[in-house]
Amino acid sequence: MEFKILDSLKNILKEKGEGKLESIFAFGIFEGDENRFLQDKNLKEFDFIYKRLEQINFKAKKSKSTIIEYPIYSTVCGIGKKSKFDYDSIRYFASISSKISETNRTKEIILIIPELSGEYYTKSGLFYLSAAIAEGAELGLYKFKKYMTKDSEKNNNEITGPKVVRVYFSGLKITEELIDSAKDGLDFGQKTSLATNFTRDLVNEPGNVVTPAYLANIAEEIAKQKNMECEIFDEVEIIKKGMNAFYGVGQGSKNPPRFIHLIYKPKNKSKNTKIKRIIIVGKGVTFDSGGLSLKPSDFMTTMKSDKSGACAVLGIMKYINEFDVNLEVHGIIAACENMPDGGSQRPDDIVKTLNGKTVEIENTDAEGRLTLADALSFASNIGADEIIDLATLTGACVVALGEYTSGVMGNDKELIGNIISTSRISGEKMWELPFDDDMREKLLSSVADIKNLGGKYGGAVTAGMFLEEFVSDKIKWCHIDIAGPSFTKVGFSYNPKGATGVGARTLLYYLIQHKI
Prior knowledge:
Elements: E1 2-6, H1 12-16, E2 23-29, H2 47-56, E3 65-68, E4 74-78, H3 87-103, E5 108-113, H4 123-139, E6 164-169, H5 176-204, H6 212-226, E7 229-233, H7 235-241, H8 244-250, E8 258-264, E9 277-288, H9 297-300, H10 308-319, E10 328-338, E11 350-352, E12 358-360, H11 368-382, E13 386-391, H12 395-401, E14 406-410, H13 413-426, E15 430-432, E16 450-451, H14 459-468, E17 476-481, E18 487-488, E19 498-499, H15 504-512
């Protein structure tokens, strides 16, 4: 899509003409403001909208919309109460508008943003508001139709819909500085959408396509395209390095594991200037059957999504050089497939991890923490200012927070707080879950240093506390359990059915905050 900023709506009706379907006007309205949304003098010529809303007694509840076909083709979308407005409200609005435009095959949307105040019309606020507009419009139209052969149009992932989106901010006193900020935000939002949709594509690919070697090949392609450093360890090197917890998970699969390490360095890095190093670790179980602790079949059907954290890491690394952040960013993935076989890891097995600690395997379906144990140890050995991991780690997190919210834990309150505050801007819901020292005894083993399962209660927390054992206490670390929102069976907001790409946008937003 091409995005443009409108500084005025003067003569826009004449330009578009009456009754033509080449464009659609999309008005965002606050609930309770149905009779007052035309306060901007630039909107006076649209008074027919108000009259129509009055006729049908339209209430602008969030995600509710109506079509007005004459004198110009328009849609009115409710964005909820003003008191509850946030950047995600605009994503909803842009997403609904783009879907209506696609359905009616219009080439252009003219988005009318309701009058806002305070933080939203500052330089940074307008940047994030504009990014949200681009993301809503782009992400809501995503489709994964690669394997559908009945219709030639469905045999690819090309997004159909409007080609141009024009944006008018009601009540904004336009300045050159604000226009530049809005344009930068739109550009940023398009790029984060590309990263998210790339992540979605990888997650949606089935396990018979995406193997550990496939992810390693993708990483090598990214490194080649983006001029990054990349190292890949095969199963021989994984064993040689002492990553026995990681290797144990994949040893029952005919698809051998791969350890992936991508490195981005800023273009203008000075030899005399210390650059902050952030390592992002993604859980990369390309398919999770549960191993010998086999999952029931209905719990197995979406387990291609157990690689969501790894795919988000690849999405971030593929597009990070588009943002020119002054950081050294590493992407680490321990990629494997958890399958039952004569050579599979067993309950009661004991493995020695990269950092020397021994782990008793109580359940082979608690496998993600084993792969991450060695990945986090590897990251700690490199040294970093911050380590952030993304993992579809526990069903317990979904029980605690629901299907739309990720759980955040770690060893540094400031980092946890920064990630959660960033998620409020990116629209990816996150909530802190507390570590509890009284629960550490649940991880104690009578035959090893630690066991890989912490009992029936507080499973998301004990899993996070297990991971903490493999992070240097000198490094700030944040664990994000994305088990709930990583994959949706029915779709929600601007996330169609399937993979959501969760984590990619929040971490890209977090990384660019070091720049703006």
